[in-house]
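hey team, just a heads up i'm posting the complex here instead of the shared drive bc the drive is being weird again. everything in one block, sequence lines first with there labels, then the predicted structure for the whole assembly after. its two chains so it's a bit long, scroll down
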Amino acid sequence: MRSGCRPLIEDKWSLHVISMLDAGPRRFSELKRGLDGVSQRMLTVTLRNLERDGILVRTVLEVMPPHVEYQLTEMGVALHEAVKPMIAWGRENVAEVERSRAAYDTRTVAER
Amino acid sequence: MRSGCRPLIEDKWSLHVISMLDAGPRRFSELKRGLDGVSQRMLTVTLRNLERDGILVRTVLEVMPPHVEYQLTEMGVALHEAVKPMIAWGRENVAEVERSRAAYDTRTVAER
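-- predicted structure starts here --
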C-alpha cells in the first residue's frame, strides 16, 4: 500500500483519471473508454488507490439500473490544479526531451 | 528506456534530485549524502535518465583532483518551477491523505 503523498502521482494512470474527473463525475465504463490502453484491473486499482487517498469518492446511485460514479473531492480538485503546470511543462517540452534523448543515445553509442 | 514526458517524474528520486540541483550544481557525493536512502545504483540511473531527458548536464571538471558536477538545464529549472505547486500540495495534504487512508482501511476491513 502507498505511504506519503508523492506516490499519488507515481503510477501512470492517476493523473489521467484526475484530469478526466475534473470535468465532472464519471462512471467506470466512461473512464475505461476515455483512458486509452488502461486495463480493467489497472483502472480498478487506480480508482481504489485514489479513493483510499481521499482524492475521489465512489458513490453507488440507487437508480434503475443502479450504477457507481466517481467524483473528485475538494482535495482532488486542488491536486488537479497543482499538477496542471507540470502537465503543461510536459506538453511544451516533449519535443525537446525527445531530441535530447536521441542525441544522448547517439553520443553514448559512439562512446562505446 | 523512458518515452513521453510523464515518466520523468514517475520514479521516486527524480523530483528529489531536481529540487536539490535547483540550489546549484552538485557532485555525485553531495547528492548521495543529501538523498536519504538512495542507493549508489539508483542515483546513477536517475542522474543518467535526467541527463538523457535534457533536465541536467553532467560536466567533468579538469581540476586537481578532477571531478564531475551535475547542473540543471534551463528546461530542468522550468520543470522544477512546474512541480513546485504539486510538491506544496503534497506537504499541505499529507495529513489529510493519511487520515483518509486510515478511514478507508478501517471501513474495508469492517466490510469483509
